[in-house]
Amino acid sequence: MYYLKLIWTFFRIGILNEMAYRVNFYVQLLQSLLSLGTAIAGLAIVFSHTDTLGGWQAVDILALLGVFMFVGGVIGMVISPSMSQLMDDVRRGIFDYTLTKPCDAQFLASISQIRVWRLTDILLGAGVLIAALIYRGLDIGPREALAFAFVLCTGGSIIYSFWLMLATLTFWFLRIENILHIFQSMYEAGRWPIGIYPHWLRYILTFLVPVAFAITVPAEALSGRLTPESMITSGLLCAFLIAFSRWFWKRGLKNYSGASA
Amino acid sequence: MSNIPDITVQNLGKTYEVPQREPGLGAALKSLISRTTRDVEAVKNISFSVAPGEIVGFLGPNGAGKTTTLKMLSGLLHPTAGEISVIGHTPYARHKNFLNRITLVMGQRNQLMWDIPVADSFERNRAIYRISHGEYKKTLDELSTLLDLSDLLSKPVRNLSLGERMKCEIAAALLHRPQVLFLDEPTIGLDVTMQRRIRAFLGEYNRRHSATVLLTSHYMADVEALCKRVIIIHHGELLFDGDLSALIERFSPHKTIVVDLETERADLSSYGEVITAEGNSVTLRVPKTKTADVTGKLLANLPVIDLTVEDPPIEEVIEQVFSN
């Protein structure tokens, strides 16, 4: 309950922060609509040449696009800004204030910055997803919906843990924003089902930069092609990464308190 | 006040491993592959204790180890040697009961958020420290009155002057009513009026709540106004721990004598070192042991209107300490 209240407080502060620069809202909305427009145009072009792409129908890829935008919105709203803030705070010594708070430092660092306007991506993503489902005739049952919710949560947690580990490197190296830019470009690859990529790239997008679990796997759940294996793998990888990133974070903190001046 | 100290430090030491690199591109490239490090002892074998409700000035030149010690006391750094206990806790364990009862203010680093009103930054701390609304209102009212914040609370931090921002930083750090305050240069960069304001506030806060305060500052006026006791460290070692008056007694071999005469431009250089001579007022520096002697002679030989014997300014004494 305490943590939920804190999230709400930070969310409210996020709104206040964004209100200071209201033009940003319109810029963000325009940007979200533009990226949705170009994505749909891209889909239209591809599917004017073919009926299926790697076994995926146009409408399934539209659902995938919805998931892509939704997850991208969550990353852009909380994970990416908070992790950038963490790196900045560590470099400027302000992270000391986080450490003197009687609250879990990882939790505080993970929600420290909330870019509320990125909600546009989340809502548009959800809209596209629902539109795709309606277009298909709302043919998913409660089992698919549950499976979807499960792999979306595990996929999201995998992405978060992955991002946290990258940001934790800042305790040793201080300047590593570039790694995050690399991630951002890899994430772009997730707008297509990873099955269409060559084997080596598929491997990278699954395990090295776990975009597959955050986007393709949830979209698979909606189009009835989710295998129990992927679901179990996603669950196990999620549990492992949460534990591992936590351990890594604690190592980082130890290094910070051992070395920083 | 109880007899159990709030802060106990025993044989505290901190050694940093610092990467070492020769200048030049070649060395920079080499350091990408293998880093050579050297050990720097920032704090060496320091021991002291602070009683509840005491204000202690923590002095030393830049790089003396003051900030390192404060960081170890507030749980940010692990000591490499020795023991610390603050209100019964080992700081670096960062137990919630410990963190709830201390606060850290660093004059050069801000925790308030830049773009939103001060009150909303306070609200964040309220939520983090689980302060009830009633308690929060009471504390905020008190801090607002003492620091004169009421006009500032609704302004975004970026619109505040440095001094106003510092007042708000200090208030933010006290919302949870900590028992122990670690203040690292809380008045740095502020104008004299604002320094005095913050000083007066800290003194008042300490009196009202019997808070224990460990304060570092480069401004001796802060120390003179607030701290009966000072701890001086230099090159990581403890040089002095005791009353401010004892410090002056011990480290200053001189006294200052100010004489007002009936005549102008008298030459008093035979009595001691003349520091200033303006009109009929002359300031002399004399060895402490000769003070009585010189005073007697001045009164006997010259048409003296007024004469005072003073301790030299604390800055001078501190300079003396560090030059030894």
What can you see in these coordinates?
The complex is a heterodimer of chains A (261) and B (324). Chain A is an all-alpha fold and 261 residues long. Chain A is built from 13 helices and two strands; from the N terminus they run ααββααααααααααα. In chain A, a hairpin with a 2-residue loop joins β1 (52-53) and β2. In chain A, α7 (142-168) packs antiparallel against α12. Chain A is globular, with a radius of gyration of 19 Å. The two termini of chain B are 37 Å apart. In chain B, α5 (133-147) runs antiparallel to α6 (162-174). In chain B, strands 5-6-7-3-8-9 form a six-stranded mixed sheet, with helices on both faces. In chain B, strands 11-12-10-13 form a four-stranded antiparallel sheet, with helices on one face. In chain B, β11 (273-278) and β12 form a beta hairpin. The mean pLDDT of chain B is 89. Chain B has helices at residues 25-33, 66-73, 96-99, 118-128, 133-147, 162-174, 192-209, 220-226, 244-251, 291-301, 314-323, and strands at 7-20, 36-50, 55-59, 81-86, 102-106, 180-184, 212-216, 229-234, 237-243, 254-261, 273-278, 281-287, 304-310. Chain B has two domains: 7-249, P-loop containing nucleotide triphosphate hydrolases (Rossmann fold), CATH 3.40.50; 253-323, 2-Layer Sandwich (Alpha-Beta Plaits). Chain B has 324 residues and is of the alpha/beta class. Chain A binds chain B through residues 2, 5-6, 9-10, 12-13, 16-17, 20-21, 92-94, 96-97, 99-103, 108, 254, 257-261, and chain B through 16-17, 42, 67-68, 71, 74-78, 92, 94, 96-97, 99-100, 102-104, 106, 109-111, 113, 115-117, 120-121, 123-124, 127-130, 156.
